[in-house]
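Table S2 (continued). Query chain:
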Amino acid sequence: MLAAPAKAQQVEWRGGGFLSSLTQACLDDGYKEHEYVSVRYRPKGFGSNGSQSRIGFFHPLFFATSYAINGNFAKSFKPVQGGGTSAGTFLFETTMKLTQKPSKLTDSTPSVELSGQIRNYGGTPDCTMAFEVNLTRRP
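Corresponding output:
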């Protein structure tokens, strides 16, 4: 009997950091300045990640939101697909920019720092916020 081919794994970096520079619309929607979020980052082209880059933000107790782009996130604002889940699940379109250090990742890059800004965060109109996170390679 032949062995089955090895299945490619999703390659991701996990960790967390803080949200900052929230607009009034974000504060009105319940987000807090310097709120801690857990983060999962799956850039395109690694393992079974496919052709989209994805990043997810997990808030304590009440909300998760994720963003995807065909290709790579960019240092300037680009359109992204968003999704959120709380009392319900929903999809939305928005824009985001992201900078990563190091700028080039490999399968063995142990950690990455991400910083960026998201407009209409979580689908909330006029809610713009910045983020800075530090992530470690998993699994």
